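So, who can interpret the following?
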Amino acid sequence: MTVVPDTTPERARAAPAARGRRKLTEALAVYLKPRVLIVLFLGFSAGLPLALSGSTLLVWMREAGVDLGTIGLFALVGTPYTVKFLWAPIVDALDVPLLSKLLGRRRGWLVLSQLLLMAAIVFLAFCDPVAAPWLVAFGALLVAATSATQDIVIDAFRVESLGESEQAAGMASYVAAYRIGMLASTAGALFLVSGFEGLGFSKGAAWTAGRPS
């Protein structure tokens, strides 16, 4: 007579482990959902311009030889990020002509803010901080204002497009990508500028080429 070993205790121990692995897989899978991935990329887009009108801008001006008093005043360029709540109701209530009709209100504002942001970054890159520091300030203010507007739209889009079970993952992805975008526009921008200088570009030309990148 064959004796079949009793495996009930092993099964009992294996069941919680299997459930734990399944829950972990389900928890990680939410980060690969299309809407969460969209928020991830939008987070990178939101973080990228922040340093361009902040710390990277100050390094650029210092490298160009702008005096410290003028550089200190550029701290005010970040004001739009602080007071963006003032025009958030306008972004929430009004449609963008043509774009909102084609894409919807949120996507229309998102496309408009990103187009304006790209134009502002290119404009800032071609300014001369020594010859026209106040033109640089105007360009940086444009970058900050359009970036702050983009933040408003992305926050609304994230809340409205993600389901309740995706909100935590969406916020985590957004913040992580936001930080990576900031890193890219600080260390990444400085790395590019150094690379262009190594290729023989003048300091001014290297900054012009490196900032839009």
Q: What stands out?
A: The two ends are 78 Å apart (CA to CA). The chain has eleven helices and no strands.
